[in-house]
């Protein structure tokens, strides 16, 4: 579904991601693990098309190719990639003063769903996620806890019907109950969607079994395994890699 060919990314002329080749398949759950600074967030931003993360060139030619549903998206901007169905949930979602999630969703849908449908869907998903009516009507994330912010991100992805969802540090700052709700929601709506869960811990993986676990070290994917790999990491750490 999403294919990375030779993904090489530099920030301020420092090479961060090094020739990553990987294909994420439709309908699968991926966990991306790795020590701090190994490039997990950079991978997420590069897939999303964040302008600060420059693809490396050789003799002024791009060496990277990113394709999504068999379409080359290497040259697309972040908003165009979002339009195609790619979604990145940030490590710490920001608050927006004066804008409700309804308004934001209407803006993002750009007329593709009418306001009433958006409202109805948002309310339905909010119920499933345990988001209160009051939080839903507040300016986005104002005074919201870490768990509430993550839930609001998941809700937006659902209303926008995104197909390839990346969650950076999905379980950071999220309490046990919120995590369970989020994991349950993702599981329920998994059909035809790909999830990439960047995480330091096994916590979320207890609720949402990954099909594949990727270990990142120093800007590369050094190991791909099944769910048992996450368990091994929890017990033994990354020193073996
Ligand atoms: N904006 C930036 N400017 C300079 N270096 C950066 C920037 N963002 C990330 N890096 C560097 O890139 C490497 C990978 O970072 P990151 O992708 O955030 O790692 P992770 O998410 O795995 O902890 C680190 O060495 C980090 O210092
Ligand atoms: Mg990170």
TrEMBL record:
<dbReference type="InterPro" id="IPR003593">
    <property type="entry name" value="AAA+_ATPase"/>
</dbReference>
<keyword id="KW-0067">ATP-binding</keyword>
<dbReference type="GO" id="GO:0016887">
    <property type="term" value="F:ATP hydrolysis activity"/>
</dbReference>
<dbReference type="InterPro" id="IPR010230">
    <property type="entry name" value="FeS-cluster_ATPase_SufC"/>
</dbReference>
<dbReference type="InterPro" id="IPR027417">
    <property type="entry name" value="P-loop_NTPase"/>
</dbReference>
<dbReference type="InterPro" id="IPR003439">
    <property type="entry name" value="ABC_transporter-like_ATP-bd"/>
</dbReference>
<dbReference type="GO" id="GO:0005524">
    <property type="term" value="F:ATP binding"/>
</dbReference>
<feature type="domain" description="ABC transporter">
    <location>
        <begin position="2"/>
        <end position="241"/>
    </location>
</feature>
<comment type="similarity">
    <text>Belongs to the ABC transporter superfamily. Ycf16 family.</text>
</comment>
<protein>
    <submittedName>
        <fullName>Fe-S cluster assembly ATPase SufC</fullName>
    </submittedName>
</protein>
<keyword id="KW-0547">Nucleotide-binding</keyword>
<dbReference type="Pfam" id="PF00005">
    <property type="entry name" value="ABC_tran"/>
</dbReference>
